[in-house]
TrEMBL record:
EC number annotated for this UniProt entry: 2.6.1.16
Primary gene name: glmS
Record's protein name: Glutamine--fructose-6-phosphate aminotransferase [isomerizing]
Known partners and oligomeric status: Homodimer.
Organism of this sequence: Phaeobacter gallaeciensis
GO cellular component terms, semicolon-separated: cytosol
Keywords, comma-separated and alphabetical: Aminotransferase, Cytoplasm, Glutamine amidotransferase, Repeat, Transferase
Single annotated GO MF: glutamine-fructose-6-phosphate transaminase (isomerizing) activity
Length: 367
């Protein structure tokens, strides 16, 4: 089917805006209304027969895997390894028994990811994939392919596919937690109702578009930008930095906040914007002390947090971006939106070709 920009200036803007709709679709598919259990298509998979998971992908899908590691380990107590497909395939790692290998790919055709899947074929107990294109090679060659229901994604920089990948991976982690008896009925229901409410919370986050555009005008003057996050926000910091460099061509890097003192703090001066992704959760106090370390060296902190977090951080921050309140485990899905909007508006301010950034391809089917 023909896809148009539906009144938006770029496909990327349209794809950012339609996330509440496509996420609702993905969630409805796996959690039909009126039913309580997390359903998976096909024959499903029994996580009591699996002792470890290996997650493999490239680019943005790799950051979805890094996020999923936190969920599978915390909720289902299942050990998880995450690897970049091009490293994994040539390292030829040993695959112990009772391992499930899971491949995440929007296109389902990325050459390195497909090769990594083929390497696992006669070694892993189960080959799973999380894909946007159900007819793709990666989907066809998996024992079980879970579609993400994002619809066609045209912008080279992945947006809605990323948040849909995250939603499906979280639901899969909940399924693993249920199979393994690691999660009680009440906790499961809390996650399920938070997931069902997520599209509305995402719509509220999108209302910050104009505030984020204003902040992006400032960011567009920077030569380098540092992103910081802890826990579930660390992979998202990596994704935020990737988005920014892909489309605005501003050099950006991300660190786990706790690593600040082990290197990147040497870069901090009054020219260095530091984007801190930090909802008011258990780790928030630690993020505040990291921000203070940055501000004490005149670094410019752009804090993305909820109302409570922003109030606690005080008015010394350079830019504040307010997000709605959300269940702790859903924060990477929600906070992906400001990360995407920041990159988008910064790129627009710089006048780059947002949907077709130089040197990049939507799908890398050759090595
Ligand atoms: C390319 C795209 C990225 C994408 C990556 C992996 O680099 O520009 O947006 O994340 O490939 O693609 P896949 O289709 O496997 O998710």
């Amino acid at each position: 089917a023909q896809v148009d920009k539906a009144g938006h200036k770029h496909f990327m803007a349209k794809e950012i805006a339609e996330q509440p709709t496509v996420i609702a679709e993905a969630i409805r598919h796996y959690l039909p209304v009126g039913e309580d259990a997390v359903h998976l298509p096909g024959d499903g998979i029994d996580f009591t027969k699996i002792d470890r998971l290996t997650l493999v992908a490239c680019g943005t899908a790799f950051y979805a895997c890094l996020t999923a590691k936190y969920w599978f380990e915390k909720l289902a107590r299942i050990p998880v390894e995450v690897d970049i497909a091009s490293e994994f395939r040539y390292r030829e790692p040993p695959i112990p028994g009772r391992t499930a290998a899971l491949f995440v790919s929007q296109s389902g055709e990325t050459a390195d990811t497909l090769a990594a899947l083929r390497y696992c074929k006669d070694k892993a107990d189960q080959i799973l994939s999380v894909v946007n294109v159900p007819e793709s090679s990666i989907a066809r060659e998996s024992d079980l392919a879970l579609p993400i229901h994002a619809g066609v994604e045209i912008g080279v920089a992945s947006t809605k596919a990323f948040t849909c990948q995250l939603s499906v991976l979280l639901m899969l982690a909940l399924k693993a937690a249920t199979d393994r008896g690691e999660i009680g009925e009440e906790e499961l229901q809390a996650h399920v109702s938070a997931l069902r409410g997520l599209p509305n919370v995402m719509s509220a986050a999108l209302e910050q578009n104009e505030a984020i555009r204003q902040a992006s005008l400032k960011l567009s003057e920077a030569r380098d930008v540092l992103f910081l996050g802890r826990g579930l926000m660390f992979p998202l910091a990596l994704e935020g930095a990737l988005k920014l460099k892909e489309i605005s061509y501003i050099h950006a890097e991300a660190y786990a906040s706790g690593e600040l003192k082990h290197g990147p703090i040497a870069l901090i001066d009054n020219n260095m914007p530091v984007v801190v992704l930090a909802p008011r959760d258990d780790l928030f106090d630690k993020s505040v002390s990291n921000m203070q370390e940055v501000m004490a060296r005149k670094g410019k902190v752009m804090l993305v947090s909820d109302a409570e977090g922003l109030a606690e951080a005080g008015d010394e921050v350079w830019q504040a971006i307010r997000m709605p309140q959300v269940h702790d485990s859903l924060s990477p899905i929600l906070y992906a939106l400001p990360a995407q909007m920041l990159a988008y508006h910064t790129a627009v301010a710089k006048g780059t070709d947002v949907d077709q950034p130089r040197n990049l391809a939507k799908s890398v089917t050759v090595e």
